[in-house]
Prior knowledge:
This protein is mostly beta strands. It has strands at 7-12, 21-24, 32-40, 43-51, 57-65, 72-81, 93-99, 102-109, 115-121, 128-136, 146-156. Strand 3 (32-40) and strand 4 (43-51) form a beta hairpin.
Amino acid sequence: GDDLSPLVWQYDFVENFAAARQAATRTTDLMEIKVGPATCGMVQQSALWQHPPVIGSGVCEYEVTVPAQVERLHLRFGVGIREGALMEGDNLCAFRIIVNGARVWSTTKQSNNWERFQIDLPTLAGQKLLIQFMTDGLGDARWNWAVWAEPQLLGYGQS
């Protein structure tokens, strides 16, 4: 792991939400993107709320400059469907993360519990990253109360 490497930089997407841009791939109908506490599986987290539009994907995008001293970059987050959503049958919500135009991670989800992930990103020290959080109702956006728990970029230096 990275136990020996110092954490030299951190970027919190919820804290920096005011700097984010919101967009939709097709139409913004019923899209809702905001930040606030969210409860999934009876566990409350600070979260990015991203209910997808009726058609296509909702996009919350951030432009982030990675400091030059970062040797390794991780993106840590959780995904959930908020408590009270009644998704069933083939109603799934897709979660995707796009970095500089390339999809680096995706999953589909129907259950309310949080699932946690940590992914390695290309370091790109001293460069700008365009990070897009996307959710898509895959044709059925009802009850797609999609939330991202405490998404953060973690930059590690030399050990």
